[in-house]
Design goal:
By secondary structure, the protein is mainly alpha-helical.
Length: 461
């Protein structure tokens, strides 16, 4: 059987080795860019016709052929061929087969170098907006859960040791702020993605009277890239995107870790919904937080995607090199992983049930010690001295296997005469939490202000 001639094969006297075809093909994964490639090609064809670079009727025929191919792809009827290397050559060859040699005019005034990065940017623009929308839903879910739990007290931890009592809502609002910054990072990166590379050719520009501003408007890019070498060779915006994915996964992983610990029998602070957990093949009592564990595990995978691309580009000479074919699989993987993880976390938070009695029981005790020290400070005792006095009180109670709430005023006076009857009000986790009235604090008043702020910002009632 005669080998099908390559679209770029004019210079070659030998057929491509089958190993090379298999090793260099990318259509097995970059066909994910097919609809974006067609979108870019349609805009390019319109421009070629408008500028008179090719006859308008030929441009219209090319556009019609591309639209038919688009339908075939959407209906899973398109025949992808590995020997045609990538998504772009597959579509171009199908166009030529469909409408004849006129289809070969589509590539006038462009290179695969600027063509591929244009399709990739269109993909990243869409997926960035998809991720932003998922983060908005996660933020709304955290806000709703904060409203539901504003009257539940829980110990906050440092060094995984009980530190100070807070309202549970304060914790959820903390993650709302964290994921809001993730959203802001993606939106900021969008400014770098939203720049049209098409019209840069292989690296030096194009010697046809093209209209790049027209193409940018057709494709929804806010600006045109100013340097043709930069447009075809740079992948820093992809690295930035993967960095954003990694940071967001890190935040999802930290939240997962907390909830995994809180769900354990040792803590018993929360119950996860049955439909979002799994069982054991051997231990019938088990209810495993697999979704949270997988989010935690998949975080390392996304880190790997970022490191892979950083490694690929670190030593590349200008301008385009075939190494850059390897930029897509890490991005496709990171996008799928991050989107799934955000969806999973949103479902977890939505179905999460706090065990308030366990939380409140743990929120008292020595977590109230800082406020005893602050009480003495307000009496004029230097903080370091107050810290030492309360440390002695803690040691005294630990030796007797007692909690802080059990101490009497008479016992407190043994450590400092400054203690008076009003100090007993501090032996309540609710009172201690509500004493934190500084902006950003955990008092109910301040949390309610933050809830109201975000309800307005997220446009929820």
């Amino acid at each position: 059987m005669k080998e099908e001639k390559k679209l770029w094969g004019g210079r070659f006297s030998e057929s491509t080795d089958s190993f090379v075809e298999e090793f260099t093909e990318s259509v097995s994964f970059d066909k994910e860019l097919a609809l974006y490639d067609i979108k870019g090609s349609i805009a390019h064809a319109k421009m070629l016709g408008k500028q008179g670079i090719i006859p308008k009727e030929e441009a219209e025929k090319i556009i019609k052929g591309l639209q038919e191919i688009q339908t075939e792809i959407q209906e899973n009827k398109f025949n992808w061929k590995k020997e045609l290397e990538d998504v772009h050559m597959n579509i171009e060859k199908a166009l030529i087969d469909k409408i004849g040699n006129i289809g070969g005019k589509l590539h006038t005034g462009r290179s695969r170098n600027d063509q591929v990065i244009t399709a990739f940017k269109l993909y990243l623009k869409e997926e960035t907006n998809n991720i932003v929308n998922l983060l908005k839903e996660l933020k709304k879910t955290l806000l709703k859960k904060a409203e539901e739990t504003i009257d539940i007290i829980i110990p906050a931890y440092t060094h995984l040791q009980r530190a100070q009592p807070i309202r549970l809502a304060h914790y959820f609002m903390a993650y709302l702020e964290i994921f809001n910054r993730d959203e802001e990072r993606f939106l900021d990166t969008l400014k770098r993605i939203d720049q049209l590379p098409l019209g840069s050719g292989a690296l030096a520009g194009v010697d046809f009277p093209i209209d790049r501003e027209f193409v940018a408007k057709e494709l929804g890019f806010s600006q045109v890239m100013r340097n043709s070498i930069d447009a075809t060779a740079s992948r820093d915006f992809v690295i930035e995107f993967l960095s954003n994915c990694s940071i967001c996964m890190s935040n999802l992983s930290r939240l997962s870790e907390d909830l995994i610990i809180w769900n354990s029998s040792e803590f018993g602070f929360v119950e996860l919904p049955d439909k979002l957990t799994t069982g054991s093949s051997i231990m019938p009592q088990k209810k495993n937080p697999d979704v949270l564990e997988l989010i935690r595990g998949k975080t390392g995978r996304v880190y790997g995607d970022l490191v892979a691309l950083l490694t690929i580009v670190k030593g590349l000479p200008m301008a385009y090199n075939r190494d850059l074919q390897e930029d897509k699989e890490p991005v496709f993987d990171a996008v799928r992983t991050l989107k799934g993880s955000i969806i999973g976390m949103t479902k977890i938070i939505e179905g999460l049930k706090p065990v308030s009695e366990k939380m409140e029981q743990a929120a008292g005790g020595f977590a109230l010690a800082t406020d005893l020290a602050n009480y003495l400070v307000r009496k004029g005792i230097p903080f370091r001295d107050a810290h030492h006095i309360v440390g002695q009180i803690v040691a005294y109670l630990v030796n007797q296997n007692r909690e802080l709430e059990t101490i009497t005023l008479e016992e407190l006076k043994q450590f400092s005469p400054e203690f008076e009857n009003d100090v007993l009000n501090l032996l309540s986790a609710y009172n201690v939490a509500d004493a934190r009235k500084s902006f950003g604090g955990t008092s109910k008043e301040r949390i309610q202000e933050q809830v109201n702020f975000w309800k307005e910002k997220l446009n929820v009632s």
